């Protein structure tokens, strides 16, 4: 069995913590590990590490690799790159082509598809269910995992099971997101389950269902992987649910009784972090007077509250969100409005992640900018120059290998160097600990676009 | 007539904007000028500028001078320094001694006492009332200014007038802060007014009332100013209201019908900044969805709100306050708790003001600290050294005169200099525009207390 994690989403409803530049699955929401890392570790209880892969897009490649590396360096390249987003059906087609061509899988290989940004506990139960589903998949079913509903939720699609037995049953039907009245009916009925977005099936089964119900995708399957990637933008954009599941006669559901959250909005945080005796969830530096049933997600800033009830407060360095509980779905509206106004706070965090590390803009003015730069061990930035600014580099931690013009030298902690305008330069961390540097830029123009690179962002020299 | 502004308070209830390091009267709450500046300008419609003085304590001396200078450089030294806070009765005694000894006033001089942190409009009405009060003061009254109440306020003391006439009347009695029921009675009665904290009286009248009712203060009046200052800590700590006003037969009240706010808490902000059609007050970068009757005081950060009603949100760089409207008085509780926990956020802002300018800590770690330093034209820092850190100085704007060891040189924009550990150094701005510099400190210890000064904080060399 191969476990494939879908990690391409951009998590708008968890703004301002989740942004396009570093979305939800890479955020450490409830402790020290990102949701993606937690998913990988959960799957490692089901399949060997080397059989876990992540499909994502170019923008998130190195984030995914950084997270995989943190679980184990041996799997940092278990990444399948989607050239462009086309929803889950084409993604699954690409995954199967990758498994057949690159991993030399046979048609009877079971593929276990999982989202990257859910919370599921406990691991042992999850592993048991995953193996049950594997057995049913080998017998020809496409197995979905149905979560026993705990409330009349209107935000999820539902699966109605046909048949009584415990374990895997046929699916009687898939139901759209219901209104409240209908959701209450489903809850009472006892045969309706939340669709968790996980699927288990053999390559052979899915190929047959693509052929029967999604010919536009099916006819691309004989291509080589390279051709499919080159042609991927011509795939129809459609979910596996619409393309196959709702039509297939092989759809099955495994009802699972487990702690599950899709962490879909700030309203779901109490499912993930247990509230205290006042019903509050408090993360960060929080002083709360007379405050009840309130979610406070803080970072470094001191947050004090007086007399609040039923609120959501999410504080980040450059953006603050305060919403009434129950209204968190509307964060998407806020994000859309900010996008329209071209606000950078929907895309960037104050810290920008790069393959070689990160930089944080500490302060900027019309003629200067100050950054804190972190270069991971063994990494380097591109060889570059700027026409409009000079830079002062002050090493605060670690040792830097600096190329200036034609000269290369080592610069140590507490030492500094000066990069004049229009001078080629390169920064590298040759050591074993992260390199931390303060960069003070000064000149008539300090925009990020004033840069000429002699090689690309991955440090690979441009071909002449 | 001399106008004296009381500017010693520390404005706890407007935390986190107002803090001990830079309290309420120096904050630009509703536009480009501090409340103190607005008070000075208001009084300039009543008396000549040079007859306006400010009494404050040592900690705020240069803040007051900076504000006075911004109104007019000719009055930057119109400052009376209180050695220690002893409430308003001793402060008034000190003011009178200063007027008699330093300003050569006669006993018939009228003294007009005003708080520094109220909003009063329009100026023309204020000036008219001030002159009415001056006339009554010359005739022997101690005139208070009673604000016609606009609501059953429980946070102020009240004055009940005796007598019908418009204009100055005798005071029938002073009433303590009432409960709600009593405040509603006062509002209906028509003869009760809010005590605005302003007083008008001649030196002769007040000296007589001190003699009759506050002998402990009265017996210090014959001293010289120098002796009174040296002995000031032995003054009883008592308000003029308790010491004299509630006992005196010369107390009078001038009812005034004017726009007045003591900006006593965040709940009073709508008196000062007109709410919009949703009842919201929005300062800063605010995106509000479905939000009503909510006060948002932002600075640089983007603030988005969804579905809020009747809230107060005050956002500063290092501290955030969110309270239910009506509960803003409880900010004092929060400040007391933070004081107990020795939190710096009750004392300091992220920008610290000094006589020579200011510094803002941009970032700090165990072995480094980055500051943005602004030195005003013509000012300099103390000649100093540090045992545990070196510093890189990068000039981003203006020209610096730098002394390192025995050498002095000029450092220009985009140039930098390095200050080794344990090396005497001095920074000065010899130019006409503010000097802006980035300082990167690096060493085994970067605390503010690692400093040896060869002269004091005002740049005056220490006597050997």
Give me the secondary-structure topology.
2 copies of one chain form a homodimer.
Chain A: E1 2-6, H1 35-43, E2 52-57, H2 61-71, E3 79-82, H3 88-101, E4 110-115, E5 119-121, H4 123-138, E6 142-147, E7 158-162, E8 169-175, H5 180-189, E9 192-202, H6 203-213, H7 215-218, H8 225-230, H9 240-245, E10 251-256, E11 259-261, H10 269-272, E12 281-289, E13 295-306, E14 311-315, E15 319-324, H11 331-340, E16 351-354, E17 357-365, E18 368-375, E19 384-385, E20 389-397, E21 400-404, E22 407-411, E23 416-419, E24 425-428, E25 435-443, E26 452-453
Parallel strand pairs in A: 1-2, 1-4, 2-3, 6-10, 12-13, 13-14
Antiparallel strand pairs in A: 4-9, 5-11, 6-9, 7-8, 7-9, 8-10, 14-15, 16-17, 17-18, 18-25, 19-26, 20-23, 20-25, 21-22, 21-24
Helix pairs in contact in A: 1-2
């Amino acid at each position: 069995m191969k476990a494939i994690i879908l990690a391409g989403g951009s998590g708008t409803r968890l703004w301002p913590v989740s942004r396009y530049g570093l979305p939800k699955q890479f955020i450490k929401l409830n402790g020290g590990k990102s949701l993606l890392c937690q998913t990988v570790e959960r799957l490692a209880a089901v399949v060997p590490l080397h059989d876990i892969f992540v499909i994502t897009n170019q923008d998130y490649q190195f984030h995914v690799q950084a997270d995989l590396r943190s679980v184990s360096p041996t799997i940092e390249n278990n990444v399948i790159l989607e050239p462009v987003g086309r929803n889950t059906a084409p993604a699954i087609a690409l995954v199967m082509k990758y498994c057949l061509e690159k991993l030399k899988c046979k048609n009877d290989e079971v593929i276990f598809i999982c989202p990257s940004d859910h919370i599921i506990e406990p691991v042992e139960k999850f592993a048991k269910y995953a193996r049950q589903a594997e057995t049913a998949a080998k017998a020809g079913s496409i197995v979905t995992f149905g979560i026993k509903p705990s409330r009349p939720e209107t935000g999820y699609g539902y699966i109605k099971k046909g048949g009584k037995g415990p374990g895997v049953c046929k699916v009687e039907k898939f139901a759209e997101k219901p209104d409240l009245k209908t959701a209450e009916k489903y809850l009472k009925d006892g045969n309706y389950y939340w669709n968790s977005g996980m699927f288990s099936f053999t390559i052979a089964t899915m190929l047959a269902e693509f052929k029967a119900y999604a010919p536009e995708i099916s006819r691309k399957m004989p291509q080589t992987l390279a051709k499919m990637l080159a042609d991927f933008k011509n795939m129809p954009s459609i979910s596996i649910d619409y393309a196959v599941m709702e039509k297939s006669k092989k759809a099955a559901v495994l009802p699972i009784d487990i702690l599950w959250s899709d962490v879909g909005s700030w309203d779901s945080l109490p499912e993930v972090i247990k509230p205290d005796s006042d019903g509050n969830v408090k993360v960060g530096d929080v002083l709360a007077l007379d405050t009840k049933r309130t979610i406070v997600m803080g970072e470094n800033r001191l947050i004090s509250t007086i007399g609040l009830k039923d609120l959501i407060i999410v504080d980040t360095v450059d953006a603050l969100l305060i919403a009434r509980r129950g209204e968190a779905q509307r964060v998407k509206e806020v994000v859309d409005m900010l996008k329209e106004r071209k606000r950078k706070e929907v895309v960037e965090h104050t810290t920008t992640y790069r393959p070689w590390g990160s930089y944080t803009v500490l302060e900027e003015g019309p003629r200067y900018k100050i950054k804190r730069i972190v270069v991971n061990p063994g990494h380097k930035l591109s060889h570059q120059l700027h026409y409009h600014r000079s830079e002062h580099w002050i090493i605060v931690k670690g040792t830097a290998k600096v190329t200036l013009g034609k000269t290369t030298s080592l610069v140590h902690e507490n030492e500094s160097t000066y990069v004049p305008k229009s001078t080629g330069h390169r920064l590298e961390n040759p050591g074993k600990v992260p390199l931390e540097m303060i960069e003070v830029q000064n000149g008539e123009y300090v925009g990020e676009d004033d840069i000429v690179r002699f090689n690309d962002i991955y440090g690979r020299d441009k071909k002449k």
